[in-house]
Specification:
Elements (H helix, E strand, L loop, with lengths): L1 E6 L1 E2 L2 E2 L7 E10 L8 E7 L10 E10 L2 E11 L7 E12 L2 H8 L8
Antiparallel strand pairs: 1-4, 1-8, 2-3, 4-5, 5-6, 6-7, 7-8
């Protein structure tokens, strides 16, 4: 689903206000890190070309679903290079606003003028 994602944390620390939205296709799928690890949910935000718009959320949990959106939390893992490079991980929360015509009108206050 096409979504505007607002990040609510920066390196694990809760932000006073959400970061600017990053728009892309939100995908939730089962994911297994190692052979002995159980499957968990992976949340990805993909650009139109297929690349990642944000670091994916490992062990993602959908916390809230409301009209037009949802809140997803998980762990962002970022590798700084090759297979033996340092890996950083931190808690992250996304507020995902599904971009439907109704939501776009509400967010941008584009009330239909002269429509029948």
């Amino acid at each position: 689903m096409y979504t505007a994602v607002y990040r609510l944390r920066e390196h694990g620390v809760k932000l006073p206000k959400p970061k600017d939205a990053v728009v892309g296709e939100l995908r939730l799928r089962p994911h297994q890190v190692g052979t002995n690890d159980p499957q968990a949910l992976l949340a990805e935000l993909l650009l139109d070309g297929g690349g990642l718009a944000l670091p994916p959320l490992h062990g993602a949990v959908v916390r809230t679903i409301s009209k037009g959106g949802m809140v997803i939390r998980g762990t962002a893992i970022l590798s700084r290079g090759g297979s033996k490079a340092r890996v950083q991980s931190w808690r992250q929360t996304w507020w995902c606003l599904v971009t439907t015509e109704e939501v776009v009108q509400e967010v941008f206050d584009l009330s239909p003028v002269g429509r029948v």
